[in-house]
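Look over both lines:
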Amino acid sequence: MIKSSELILNPDGSVYHLNLKPENIAHDIIFVGDQNRVEKITQFFDSIEFSTQKREFKTQTGIFKGKRITVLSTGIGPDNIDIVINELDALVNIDLKTKMPKEKLTTLNIIRVGTSGSLQADIPVDSFVMSKFGLGLDNMLRSYLIDAVSNVKMEDAFVAHTNWDPKKGKPYVIACSEKLEKMIESDKMHKGITATAGGFYGPQGRVLRLNIQDENLNSKMDNFQFEGNRITNLEMETAAIYGLSALLGHNALSLNAIIANRASGTFSEDPYKAVDELIAYTLDKIAQS
C-alpha cells in the first residue's frame, strides 16, 4: 500500500496537483506548456466533456473526429513534468481508493506540442521538429533508476564532446516512442536530439548580469553528432517527458514548432501560425490512429 504522504489526494479523491480523477482523462493526451494554449487545441473539438484547472495545470477532455483526447498544460520545466506524469500514471495504474498498484497496467499515449528555438542554421523558423531523442541537462531524472531506459553510449559521447563539468550532474538521453514516431512522422518533420535545460537563462546559455559556467556550451552542442543524430533544438520539458514515460511504460513523443533560430538570430514573423499548423497536423494524426 502506498502511504498517503506519498500519493496525496484532495478531499474529493482527485490527485493533488492536477485535480483529476481517473474518469476525467483519455488515454491519448496532448501536453502543452502554456495554459492558454489548451483552448487553442480544444476549440477544434466536436465536444468538451470535462474541464478543470489548478495552478498552471489546466485540463480539458473531449471528442475530436470520434477520438477521445485530453489536453493538459504542464507549465514550464522538468520539475513540473515530474508532477504531471507521476499523477497521470497514478490515475490509470494505481487504485486511488486502496492506494495499491493495479495488476493490469494501462499505457498512455502522450504527445507534447510546443515551441522551441532551433540550434541549427538549416532548421528555419516556422518549421517542425520531432524529437528522436531527449537529452536531459537538468538532472531531474537522475532521482530515479534510469539505466534500463537511457542511452549510455550517447550520454558518454556528449560528456566527452562538451567536456561536461561533473559537478553539474551527468546528462541523460532517452529515445522517443517508436509507435508514436511512426504514427506522426512526415516529410514536414526535421528529426534529431532535443536538449532539455533546467532553466531559461544561464542553463540555455543566456547571459544577463551573471556569468555562466560554460559560455561555449551552445556552440559545442551545435556540432555534436552521434550515429547520425545531431542536436536540433533546446527547450525545457522533452527529456523529462521521455524519461518518466519510458520508466512507467507510457508512449511519448515531443513535437515543436520552431519560432526562433539561435544560429541565425531570427524569430518567426507569425509564430502563432506555425503553432496552429502543428496543432492541426497532430490532431488529425491522433484521430486517424
Summary: The chain is about 25% helix and 30% strand. The first strand starts at residue 28 and ends at 32.
